[in-house]
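Our consortium's second objective concerns turning raw sequence data into structural hypotheses that experimental partners can test. To show how far this objective has progressed, the report includes one record in full. It was chosen at random from the queue rather than selected for favorable results. The single chain below, 258 residues long, was entered without modification.
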Amino acid sequence: MRSLSAACLLLFTIFVPVQATENWSFADHPHPDFMDEYSAEEDAMIADLEAMGAGINNCSAEIVFEYLIYNRRYPEFAFTHEFKEGLEVWKHHVLETNRAASSFCIVIEVTEELRELYSYDFATPTEGLFCGKPGRPYINAEESRIMGLLDRLVSYAATGNSFALPALSEVEDWSDIRLNPDIRYYVEARQARRYGNEPAPILRDTVIALQGKDRLAFVEDAIARNDLYAVIETSPPCSAFTPEALAKAQEAARGDPI
């Protein structure tokens, strides 16, 4: 019976007509805290999901189930948002607040799809495509998919979420992507300071060496404001940090002919 109720709610949120476009306030309509604010029926829905094998291999189901719980609490939300649009803005709310258990799944769903694309669909690297910001136009359908996923991952990291921030920096571990020094420093410092630590000194030194102390001060101010986009929007183009560009900059600094 609970499964039938969940299915009916899913159909309702997908097919209900949108009556108006309004500014929805998640501050006034927060997702119920999964630790202590779920009803007995909602807890039972989650138990049913876990019995079906929810987890890293069924993250999509966990996300949708918790989104259904949100729509169950606030039925008017479905009337003012298309399903996919509503799901995406709800995901950002969850990442900002950690009020739903699926925050990890929201991030892992994107990173796993990216990993799959890089592991199986690419015979050649996507050099220059992305460095924390778009680097060049995509040239095929696969690169278009990658850019769409990276854009989502950046937007998730911009919430300051403890899963999303490291996920953005970790793309360097399994792809040819290299973040610009200032963007990498922001991500690493913001995450490290969450736990009272500091990022590796080499990250700070690299920003100073390649971009200057003023740029470091700008990034530090952005970290204090939790404003990743301020750093991304003012970061140099990806081409500024290619090996060739850095070699030319070093030669110019020494006064050597280029």
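The partners drew two points from this record. The chain is about 65% helix and 0% strand. Residues 1-21 have pLDDT under 50 and may be disordered. Both points have been shared with the crystallography group to help prioritize constructs.
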